[in-house]
Specification:
aminotransferase; about 35% helix; Aspartate Aminotransferase, domain 1; PyrdxlP-dep_Trfase_major; DegT/DnrJ/EryC1/StrS family aminotransferase; Aspartate Aminotransferase, domain 2; globular; 2 domains; single chain; seven-stranded mixed beta sheet; 14 helices
Length: about 400
């Protein structure tokens, strides 16, 4: 008889009187317009964004309506020529890729270290061509990528570096919050994230020019700062309402109480799983701290572990009641119909027309990425877990590993 599934701990209550008071105050103003009735940098959302900039070590932050919007704004503000190549990981949320496609740029996929499921500098360098103009690095699961090495490579090659920090609120590299190592740092505040305003996001910028560019690209290029560039570029509406801004301001104060328990438990889970033969956790970064959006590990199969990833997961559930998911994506993005048949554009892809080149993603094969996806297993992990829950995870993995040597 299968063992009953152990319930996943619920996240503790995240919203209280502080959020209700902030939302009530916003409603009492009788306007939810993000600019309020003042100048752009004196408006309520702008004041919230300055708090975020201060917390994450940036010059200024620009509010957006989602993490995908943040990436689109940053890529648009990079002003890479249409048809340019942008290197990106094939193991990420589709929002990362869509932000590139929206600007008629061409995603080029880099391989990854199968153990971390993220590219290293050597993987990115191998993907660089004469047409490369940018790199988007994803800090997957809240674990910092090897961003210093990647930043050095991008600087040497003259490439725009954009950090996708959507899963990495509260993570650091070399003592600094992520988003400080590239030209732009892009974050998400949707409901699944460590802190949230329901939907929303922000872009970290490090100088005036980039701040104003991002602000304009998030607001239809209306030139709210009066710099004489009204409607100088095609730009979407990615504005954040004052309700979102009020929520975001209160939630920022709770970031550490969301991240620190995850870090302690996640680090412990990393350390314990690393002791089990044939189990390869994503691992702690050497030069940083993870914030554990979820927990990722893989099995050394068909090497040490003599079963497939699916059999391993089934046995954890049947024998120990522990549920899990596969790797973060069901297949590397380049293997999806989205890219095999380029269904992201009906008819001819304009980026190819402008570039004068065609891209056949059927020919892409990246062994590290394919191994990471085929052998990866994902556990839920959040601040509501206890040490006993980590004990359960470890015991289940050990039991199933030992059955399959």
């Amino acid at each position: 008889m299968p063992v009953p599934t152990k319930p996943i701990p619920k996240r503790p209550v995240r919203f209280d009187a502080a959020e209700r008071a902030a939302l009530d105050a916003a409603l009492q103003k009788n306007t939810l317009w993000y600019l309020g009735s003042g100048k752009p940098d004196d408006a309520p959302v702008a004041r919230t964004m300055q708090r975020y900039a201060d917390r994450f070590g940036a010059y200024r932050a620009v509010s957006t309506s989602s993490g995908t919007a943040s990436l689109h704004v940053a890529i648009a503000a990079s002003q890479m020529p249409t048809g340019s190549e942008v290197i990106v990981t094939p193991i990420t949320d589709i929002g990362t890729i869509n932000a590139i496609l929206y600007q008629n740029l061409i995603p080029v996929f880099a391989d990854v270290d199968p153990d971390t499921a993220m590219p290293q500098a050597k993987h990115i360098e191998a993907a660089i061509t004469e047409h490369t103009r940018g790199v988007v690095v994803v800090h997957l699961t809240g674990r910092p990528a090897e961003i210093s090495d990647i930043a050095a490579l991008c600087e040497a090659k003259g490439l725009v570096l954009i950090e996708d920090c959507a899963q990495a609120l509260g993570a650091t590299h070399k003592g600094k919050p992520l988003g400080q190592f590239g030209r732009f740092g892009c974050y998400s505040l949707n409901d699944q994230k460590h802190i949230t305003c329901g939907e929303g996001g922000f872009v970290l910028t490090h100088n005036d020019d980039d701040y104003f560019l991002c602000h304009n690209y998030a607001d239809k290029f209306f030139d709210r700062h009066g710099r004489g560039v009204r409607l100088h570029a095609l730009a979407p509406n990615y504005r954040m309402s004052d309700l979102d801004g009020a929520m975001a301001e209160v939630q920022l104060a709770k970031l550490d109480q969301m991240v620190l328990p995850r870090r302690r438990l996640g680090d412990r889970l990393n350390d314990e799983l690393a002791k089990i033969r044939g189990i390869i956790p994503q691992g702690r970064p050497l030069d940083g701290e993870s914030s554990y959006f979820f927990f990722l590990f893989r099995i050394d199969s068909p090497g040490v572990i003599k079963c497939s990833r699916q059999v391993f997961r089934d046995q954890m559930l049947d024998l120990a009641g522990i549920s899990s998911s596969g790797a973060y994506v069901p297949e590397p993005i380049y293997r999806s119909d989205y890219f095999l048949n380029k269904t992201f554009f009906p008819g001819r892809w304009p980026a190819e027309v402008v570039a004068g080149r065609t891209y056949d993603y059927r020919k892409v094969s990246l062994p590290g990425a394919e191994t990471a996806v085929e052998t990866g297993i994902r556990f839920i992990l959040h601040e509501g877990f206890k040490d006993s829950d980590i004990d359960d995870y470890v015991a289940a993995v050990r039991m199933v590993a030992e059955r399959n040597y």
